[in-house]
Amino acid sequence: MADTAGVVASAPRLGLLLRVRARTVYNRVGQAISDAPIRLAAAVFLVSLIWLGLYGLFRLVFMQLSRTPLEATVAIPMIFNFFFVAMLALLAFSNAIIAYGALFGRSEASYLLTLPLSPLDVVSLKYLESLVLASWSVVLLGLPLMFAMAETTDQPIFYVLFLAFFLAFIPIPASLGMLLAWGVARFFPRRLTKAATITAAIMLVFTIASALRALRIGDTAAEVWLRSFLNRMGFVQSALLPNNWAAAGIDHAVHGKFSEAARYLGVTLANAFFLSWLAVTIVSKYFDTAYDRATSGRSGGKRAAAEASGGAAGWVFCYLDAPLRLVAAKDLRTFLRDPAQWSQLTILFGLLMLYLTNMPTLRLEFSASGWFLIIPFLNLCAVSLILATFTCRFVFPLVSLEGQKLWLIGVLPMRRGRLLLAKFAFSMTVTLLVAVGSMSLAAYMLHLDVIWTTIHLVVTFGICFGLCGFSVGIGARLPVFGQTNVARIANGLGGTLNLLASVALVALVLAGVGVATWRCRNLSPNTLPDARSLLLCAASIATSIAAGLWALRMGARHFDRVQV
Amino acid sequence: MIDPAAPPAISLIGVRKSYGRHVAVKGLTLEIPPGELFAFLGPNGAGKTTTIKMIVGLLQPEAGHVAVCGHRIGANGLAAKAALAYVPDQPFLYEKLTGREFLYFVAEMYGLHRAERERMIDSLIRRLDITEFLDQLTESYSHGMKQKVVLAAALLHRPAVLVIDEPMVGLDPRTVRSVKDLFTEHTRAGGTVFMSTHTLDIAEALADRIGIIHQGELIAVGTLDELRRKARREHSLEEIFLELTETGDG
């Protein structure tokens, strides 16, 4: 036998791992260009669209601020501070999820652990991967912000410094995220569901607390509210927080104080290096133990939970006949037992709730002007886009995921296409609950009148119907049988088409409602809109429902014929 | 070919592992010398995969210790891992690499020189009949194709210890025959094969010794003849297995 032990045991292998990763990326890109150029073009188009939208938004904000230089002096560092604090929280959280999956969830980690690799090599690889993934935020958020802001300064070195601050900042949340993931694996093994539940509960409590606080100051003038708000958020400007270093550094760069900017850059870089070293060292030193604990648990008993969710499903889906009710109940259980699904929905709508519950502070400002309808309309846009994200990511793969069990469904005493009804009922129930809940809260917080509350709720129903119909119908027409990874199903050709169709549908419906809203912007509350505006809203809702029905029918026909 | 003074290829001493309150492996002690093909049998949930994962360093025992070729897993894990190769029941391959690129990666990981690498790859792709699809992305492979490439990758550096979980699942009869021959040649050259399987015919035909684990305890270990004597039956391994594991229940 070859004695390779001495040869390989001492050699670092990070370079080899990085080369393999580069090769997989090269192959992936080559495959995307040759096999799915439309999908690639669609992705580039959508990213560009988001990029342009953000650029326009940032530009608008900076142009407004540049008209009042005094306010801009105070507001711009503040905006950057909030921007970076949001980046810090979001990137730390997303890096924690990415790092947990990469280190303790994927089969690649198991494979690498059986190779003669030091944990330092494996952890370094995963850390660099999460850094690269997190760097997408630079492309998506940072660059539009940079170009929009560059118009307010004539210093060309601003671009270099801005990018430098971004790149120096990103390792900080990435390190925190990796430490968080390791901590969960090490100290809360196999309790991810519980951890996610606790996180969701904390978010809920925070939302309610914010709502109460917002209501308390709801009757004060905007200026007082702004001062109170800034006081409450003063902690984000603490000199010890990295968001403050990046924000202050960029502000100095804008004003041509380059030595000050360089000092802040140095502080940010030093902390980024230190935290990266600390995270990689701690995680690699105790990686074996954390991996062992994360993979040594057993799934707890589900009997009681199964009975409870079965009972709930029987009640919620009482309008379905028995076989379909059972399929919908099965989907509900799967949804409840998959934290990746419900936690994303909770987080997205939790953040929306946080925003909505802070709305009352705006009502005095906007109720007197035409804004009283515009703000609720923007809320409707936000809810619709979140719904589209959720249905494309989680509802679309539902039919494909049945691929492994098609032999079972194929022998059931019912038309196979009817299965789509169960999928549709399940997705409508989940999406309607959160969407109608959010829109009702938004209407209540803004004291929206009954007429427009009703219109928005019916539009929400229509959008839910259309989006769920699209995702289930297109999911059945272009399924990816044999694939069990939800993300890969959603990222396939069918998933991309569904995403484009869903975005187009939402845009169409919102355009109709938007025009109606604009026409009625000067109406006083509780005044019935004119017939044309009502007709526009009705036509939008009808279009969405008809599109959903059409997609469902098309999917059911195909699903009936599909070869098992 | 086999050094009599060499340490055991695999050594488990008083190894224990539990998942919560469930004890998966209870004080397992087992030594496998170099050059042996050891078949590890047991009913579902008996503790086979947990034992294998402790041998390859994926899980850590709560008590006792595991060593491969005298290198303790944990304390001297890199040297132990350099001496072994592991083929799990669900083989892992990088989906966006071709089979050949994956084999090159493994060869470089174990420090094989170019000439040695090419020689071994040529030999293994011929023996396992994988030439036809080796330059396709592995995402398009069937289970059997993946199993063949993973087997080739495992044998590439001629490991002192080959640990393999269900080696024949998904393989066609011709490849099964090739794999059997490869295992036999490997043990004749001084290598050790630790094979977990439910295919008792293969264990009966190939294994030098057989171990049966039941409810986390090693209830029998020895050659087929020794197991027959223990079970007081002159029959097939299947009947011995059923007899011993039924006794274990009681």
What does this molecule look like?
The complex is a heterodimer of chains A (564) and B (250). Chain A is mostly helical and 564 residues long. Chain A is built from 26 helices and no strands. In chain A, helix 8 runs parallel beside helix 13. Chain B is α/β, with parallel strands linked by helices and 250 residues long. Chain B has a domain of 144 residues: P-loop containing nucleotide triphosphate hydrolases (Rossmann fold). Chain B contains 9 helices and 10 strands. In chain B, the strands form 2 sheets. In chain B, strands 6-7-8-3-9-10 form a 6-stranded mixed sheet, sandwiched between helices. In chain B, helix 6 links the parallel strand 7 and strand 8. The longest helix of chain B has 16 residues. Chain B is globular, with a radius of gyration of 18 Å. Classes of the chains: A mainly alpha (564), B alpha/beta (250). At the A-B interface, helix 1, helix 2, helix 5 and helix 14 of A face helix 2 and helix 3 of B.
Helix content of chain A: over 70%
The helix fraction of chain B, in percent, is: 25-40%
Task: Specify the number of helices of chain A.
Answer: 26
How many E-type strands of chain B?
10
Most extensive chain-chain interface: A-B, 38 and 44 residues
How much of the sequence lies in strands of chain B comes to 15-25%
CATH topology of the domain at 1-83 and 190-250 in chain B: Rossmann fold
Number of helices of chain B: 9
Q: What oligomeric assembly is this protein in?
A: heterodimer
Q: What is the mean pLDDT of chain B?
A: 87
SS class of chain A: mainly alpha
Q: What characteristic shape of chain B results from the CA principal axes? A: globular
Determine the N-to-C terminus distance of chain B. 44 Å
What sequence of helices (H) and strands (E) makes up the elements of chain B? EEEHEEHEHHHEHEHEEHH
> Largest sheet of chain A at a glance?
none
Please provide the ordered H/E string of secondary-structure elements of chain A.
HHHHHHHHHHHHHHHHHHHHHHHHHH
**Biggest sheet layout of chain B:** 6 strands, mixed
CATH superfamily of the domain at 1-83 and 190-250 in chain B: P-loop containing nucleotide triphosphate hydrolases
Rg of chain B, nearest Å? 18 Å
> Rg of chain A to the nearest angstrom?
26 Å
Number of strands of chain A: 0
